[in-house]
């Protein structure tokens, strides 16, 4: 750790130091450190589940600012200190930073004083990581099932099972160490690491799997404790008894269910009322585990010189249940008389040796007695090298003993030791793997460690190494010391109902029995303590809405509701009642958890994110991928159907969080992965222009904002076009200066995002601030998008009420946008009468979408109806395509060609060719053109007159001079009075909004000005007469004729269509005709309910080729 020397700085002035940035202030200029009592900076939750684990590096919003706060040395940085902490305050915050674990310490801390809660963590590697990991890894499988696994699979395959499971956990520990040393890891263990590395969706899914695995682990430990209790400690306590050998299994299972439920209830009560006692007894439970293991090694060493006396009785090569007879012999000698033994009476229906009615196999095979524990020097290891997998009910046999293979009586089956389940290599992997779990115990205690980033990797890896060596040596010792028939005897029936591993232990089998019982009970209590807190951590993160209730508990933080749910789920495992069936279930959940730990490390390593700087350096992405692959392989090796169920559970939780869970930003690796994938894809798209087959509709949609989106139905229509899997960019312009409008920009973006969420439009929002609206629109058209993901289509609304408005800026902005899109080679869509467009909740059950194909636009008119029909609103509408034939066109051939073209495009539509004959221009067309031009001329004169008055006011008030009024007075005209905005309505450019500086406007008139104004008034009648004698321009007459005739045809054919798509004429090259252009578009679309004006971008968007 670096060392800092703080040198006090003398200052004559005494400064007032208060709490800056909401943290504990340290005054380095005093002799001591002053802080606010009760203001302990810990890892906390903001109420939305976002743990402020990185809070030492963030400036708080509730900074206390005082006028006399800054001293003279920092006066230059006053503005920065408003929002950023001083270095001294930052260091103070880092010094006082703690992260109290979300485990059993909460209960203890609630009962401790403030002083004890402030005590710094001081646990080292041994007590904080190594021993807790040992206690969690060593468990019930070592004592109850490892001997059976060695006998069934053999030493070689048992070595392979241990190697696979321990290698998987070792690789996971390496990945976990890298993640755990990449910053401070608060409580939550694997859940916290995965959620902060892979995101809320993965974290929630794997967190639930980890919770279920821990809960089923509690059930497994309870079943193991009950098995020890009923089989080896107090067999007389069994409630249910088998009436015959067929009912033995059901009786055992029922006993397990009853006693397991009782034990679970008692443990839950203990956890509820006295968690601190569970933690204090943890050292006792660990001592039981260590003593039991040491006794096994001591017994193995002793067996070299003096093997324990546990003989087993064999009938032929079959193993007999030893507790059902006293002497391993067919006859016994009582005095000088040979009488049948108890074994004889078990196999024979008559006790008379002269006329016996015995089992055939009993008659033809001899009874022998062999040593069950030959010892380490016996050479039995050669016989136990290879496995002997059995079917359910198959009798345990010893190869090499003489035997006459005949079928015995069915009634005698219960006298032999037989397999209770069918065994296989994959089943044994699933049963053994829980004995390799528990590697997260160190990371869960990171808040208690003096140096977590050093202790977690060392302690965890050493614990896994230790347990792996113990398992390897145990496999060898069991195979070298114990007879194979005894090893395969799961419940010790051949050795008088003794625990098989206990027969090897020294000084007594009771050491193992009692030690394993207490260690198993302790492990079950630890699981019942940890699982509810894990569920509470997930619930408090608020990523799964329906789990919120489990985030609450007692006043001291105890997760009452979570404990209740944990007990109910553990009861499901108890009802299964078979240790061998429960073990693969929790193996699935733990393996999935470890899989995602490896994935998180691999993703972070490959992405090379700047924040990925773990102190643990002995990791590599290849090791993480290997660990991930091993986890996935072990899942399907253990039980493929359990693996599928676990994956489905995790997948459903993932999708639920994705659609219903709260949005979280934890800086996870999936976001970084998305960024890298987006970067790669964007660079790939830059290699060349997209092919026509890959063309997607990428829409730039302009909205008008007031306090909300003005026309939300436009956004609805855009969302209905998104079936083409394109992209939408919603843009808007705020008029003003950026420095003054930043807050308004943020509020506008949020309003647009809310509306996009309501309409379920996936895309982006961009609000810009510009001095003029048309400049902002031009900026958006030019700059929005990135690389190959730039927009290719612009959607904007129609300027309603443009005729009645005196302000031409709305329709001038509209036409200017049309020109900008044309210059940028972008397609344009203008929905008209948008208030009549359907919402996403409406359904058209019939009707047509009519396309009027006047000029070729690259296929946009063909593609848009197809995209609309992918949406549920328009799905049942039929498509009709109309095209216009002139006099010299062959309409019949045009229809055939168009039908062929649509067939090649794979678009189903009706085709119709409309013939438009040449006709004289009607009087209506002439009159309409004349009215249009007269209106334009009148408005132009009005605007000119207004502009002249404004310029005169500006000219006469621009200089500060004395003028003589007609009444002989002198007035002083100030230049400041020229800052009057009259509104240049005719201008193509918006005038800057300048507020007047005076409430009263005083104009000074001269004699010349008075005469000029009177002449203008006298000319008004002449202007009116000139307006009445105006003759329309012939080009305008022709355009109006086209609009009127085409409108008549469209209304005649498509008056009842659900939507009409129409080629949009381009604006005139001369800007003087802009107002006439708007009139032409109005005439063209009159009488139609829903119209979509479409203008192509100059490139083909649809092709007939595959």
From TrEMBL:
Keyword Glycoprotein applies: yes
What protein family does this chain belong to? Answer: Belongs to the SLC12A transporter family. K/Cl co-transporter subfamily.
Citing just one GO molecular function, the answer is: potassium:chloride symporter activity
Q: Which reaction does it catalyse?
A: K(+)(in) + chloride(in) = K(+)(out) + chloride(out)
Where's it found, cell-wise? Answer: Cell membrane
Q: Indicate where this protein is primarily found.
A: membrane
Membrane-spanning intervals of the chain = 127-149, 155-181, 202-223, 258-275, 282-301, 421-441, 461-487, 507-525, 561-579, 585-606, 618-635
Please indicate which superkingdom the organism of origin belongs to: Eukaryota
**A GO BP term, please?**
cell volume homeostasis
Q: What is this protein called?
A: Solute carrier family 12 member 4
* Domain Amino acid permease/ SLC12A positions: 129-301, 423-696
Cellular component, GO, one term: synapse
Q: Where is the SLC12A transporter C-terminal domain?
A: 712-830, 843-950, 1012-1106
Q: Which NCBIfam families does the UniProt record give?
A: 2a30
> How does this protein lie in the membrane?
Multi-pass membrane protein
What Gene3D superfamilies is this protein classified in?
Amino acid/polyamine transporter I
Spell out the InterPro entries in the cross-references: AA-permease/SLC12A_dom (IPR004841), KCL_cotranspt (IPR000076), SLC12_C (IPR018491), SLC12A_fam (IPR004842)
Annotated region Disordered: the residues are 28-58
């Amino acid at each position: 750790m670096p060392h800092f020397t703080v040198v006090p700085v003398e200052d004559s002035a005494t400064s007032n130091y208060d709490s800056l940035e909401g943290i504990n202030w340290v005054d380095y200029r005093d002799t001591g450190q002053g802080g606010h009592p009760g203001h302990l900076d810990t890892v906390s939750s903001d109420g939305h589940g976002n743990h402020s684990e990185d809070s030492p590096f963030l400036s708080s919003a509730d900074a206390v600012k005082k006028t006399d706060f800054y001293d003279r040395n920092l006066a230059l940085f006053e503005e920065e200190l408003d929002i950023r902490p001083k270095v001294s305050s930052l260091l103070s915050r880092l010094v006082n930073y703690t992260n109290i674990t979300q485990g059993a310490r909460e209960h203890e801390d609630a009962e401790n004083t403030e002083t004890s809660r402030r005590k710094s963590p001081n646990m080292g590697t041994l007590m904080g990581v190594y021993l807790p990991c040992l206690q969690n890894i060593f468990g019930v499988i070592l004592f109850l099932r490892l001997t059976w696994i060695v006998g069934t699979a053999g030493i070689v395959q048992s070595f392979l099972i241990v190697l696979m499971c321990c290698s998987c956990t070792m690789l996971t520990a390496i990945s976990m160490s890298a993640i755990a040393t990449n910053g401070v890891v608060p409580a939550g263990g694997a859940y916290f690491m995965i959620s902060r590395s892979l995101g809320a969706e993965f974290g929630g899914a794997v967190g639930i799997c980890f919770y279920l695995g821990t809960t089923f682990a509690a059930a497994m430990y309870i079943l193991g404790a009950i098995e020890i209790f009923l089989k080896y400690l107090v067999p007389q306590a069994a409630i249910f008894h088998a009436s015959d050998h067929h009912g033995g299994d059901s009786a055992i299972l029922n006993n397990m269910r009853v006693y397991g439920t009782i034990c679970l209830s008692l443990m839950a009560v203990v956890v509820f009322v006295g968690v601190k006692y569970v933690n204090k007894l943890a050292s006792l439970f660990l001592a039981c585990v260590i003593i039991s293991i040491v006794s096994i090694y001591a017994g193995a060493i002793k067996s070299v010189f003096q093997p324990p006396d546990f003989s087993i009785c064999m009938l032929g090569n079959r193993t007999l249940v030893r507790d059902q007879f006293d002497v391993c012999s067919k006859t016994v000698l009582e005095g000088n008389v040979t009488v049948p033994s108890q074994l004889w009476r078990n196999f024979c229906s008559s006790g008379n040796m002269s006329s016996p009615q015995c089992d055939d196999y009993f008659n033809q095979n001899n009874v022998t007695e062999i040593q069950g524990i030959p010892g380490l020097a016996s050479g039995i290891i050669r016989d136990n090298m290879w496995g002997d997998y059995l079917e359910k009910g198959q009798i345990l046999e010893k190869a090499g003993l003489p035997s006459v293979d005949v079928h015995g009586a069915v009634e005698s089956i219960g006298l032999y030791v037989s397999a209770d389940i069918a065994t296989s290599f994959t089943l044994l992997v699933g049963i053994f793997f829980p004995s390799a779990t528990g590697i997260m115990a160190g990371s869960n205690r990171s808040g208690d460690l003096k140096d977590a980033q050093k202790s977690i990797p060392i302690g965890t890896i050493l614990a896994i190494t230790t347990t792996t060596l113990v398992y390897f040596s145990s496999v060898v010792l069991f195979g070298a010391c114990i007879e194979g028939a005894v090893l395969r005897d799961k419940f010790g029936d051949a050795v008088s109902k003794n625990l098989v591993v206990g027969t090897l232990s020294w000084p007594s089998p009771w050491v193992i029995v009692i030690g394993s019982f207490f260690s198993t009970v302790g492990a079950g209590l630890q699981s019942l303590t940890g699982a509810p807190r894990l569920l509470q951590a997930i619930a408090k993160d608020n990523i799964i809405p329906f789990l919120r209730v489990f985030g609450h508990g007692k006043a001291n933080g105890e997760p009452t509701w979570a404990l209740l749910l944990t007990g109910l789920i553990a009861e499901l495992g108890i009802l299964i009642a078979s240790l061998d069936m429960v073990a693969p279930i929790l193996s699935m959940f733990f393996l999935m958890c470890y899989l995602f730990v490896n994935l998180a490390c691999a993703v972070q390593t490959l992405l090379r994110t700047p924040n990925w700087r773990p102190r643990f350096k002995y990791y590599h992405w290849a090791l993480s991928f290997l660990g991930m692959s091993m986890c996935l392989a072990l899942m399907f090796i253990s039980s493929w159907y359990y693996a599928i169920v676990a994956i489905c559970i995790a997948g459903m939780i993932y999708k639920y969080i994705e659609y219903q869970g709260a949005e979280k930003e934890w800086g996870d690796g999936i976001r970084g992965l998305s960024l890298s994938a987006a970067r790669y894809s964007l660079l790939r798209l830059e290699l060349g222009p997209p092919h026509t087959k890959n063309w997607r509709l990428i829409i730039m949609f302009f909205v008008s904002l007031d306090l909300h989106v003005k026309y939300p139905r436009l956004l609805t229509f855009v969302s209905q076009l998104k079936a083409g899997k394109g992209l939408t960019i919603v843009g808007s312009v705020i008029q003003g200066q950026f420095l003054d409008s930043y807050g308004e920009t943020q509020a506008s973006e949020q309003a647009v995002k809310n509306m996009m969420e309501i309409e379920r439009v996936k895309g982006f929002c961009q609000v810009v601030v510009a001095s003029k609206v048309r400049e902002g629109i031009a900026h958006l058209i030019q700059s929005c998008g990135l690389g190959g993901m730039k927009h290719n289509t612009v959607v904007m609304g129609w300027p309603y009420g443009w005729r009645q408005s005196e302000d031409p800026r709305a329709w001038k902005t509209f036409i200017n946008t049309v020109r900008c899109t044309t210059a940028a080679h972008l397609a344009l869509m203008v929905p008209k009468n948008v208030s009549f467009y359907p919402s996403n909740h409406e359904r058209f059950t019939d009707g047509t979408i009519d396309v009027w194909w006047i000029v070729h636009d690259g296929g946009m008119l063909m593609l848009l109806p197809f995209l609309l029909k992918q949406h549920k609103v328009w799905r049942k509408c039929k498509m009709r395509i109309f095209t216009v034939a002139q006099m010299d066109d062959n309409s019949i051939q045009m229809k055939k060609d168009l039908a062929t073209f649509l067939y090649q495009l794979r678009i189903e539509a009706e085709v119709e060719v409309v013939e438009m004959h040449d006709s004289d221009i009607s009087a209506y067309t002439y009159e309409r053109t004349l009215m249009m031009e007269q209106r334009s001329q009148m408005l132009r004169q009005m605007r000119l007159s207004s502009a002249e008055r404004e310029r005169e006011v500006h000219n006469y008030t621009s200089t500060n001079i004395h003028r003589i009024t007609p009444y002989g007075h002198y007035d002083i005209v100030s230049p400041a009075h020229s800052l009057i905005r009259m509104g240049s309505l005719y201008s193509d450019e918006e005038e800057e909004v300048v507020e007047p500086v005076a409430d009263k406007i005083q104009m000074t008139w001269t004699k010349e000005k008075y005469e000029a104004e009177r002449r203008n008034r006298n000319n008004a009648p002449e202007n009116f007469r000139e307006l009445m004698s105006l003759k329309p321009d012939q080009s305008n007459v022709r355009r109006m004729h086209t609009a009127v005739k085409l409108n008549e045809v469209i209304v005649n054919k498509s008056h009842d269509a659900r939507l009409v798509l129409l080629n949009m004429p381009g604006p005139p090259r001369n800007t003087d005709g802009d107002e006439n252009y708007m009139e032409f578009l109005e005439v063209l679309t009159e009488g139609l309910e829903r119209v979509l004006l479409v203008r192509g971008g100059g490139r083909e968007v649809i092709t007939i080729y595959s």
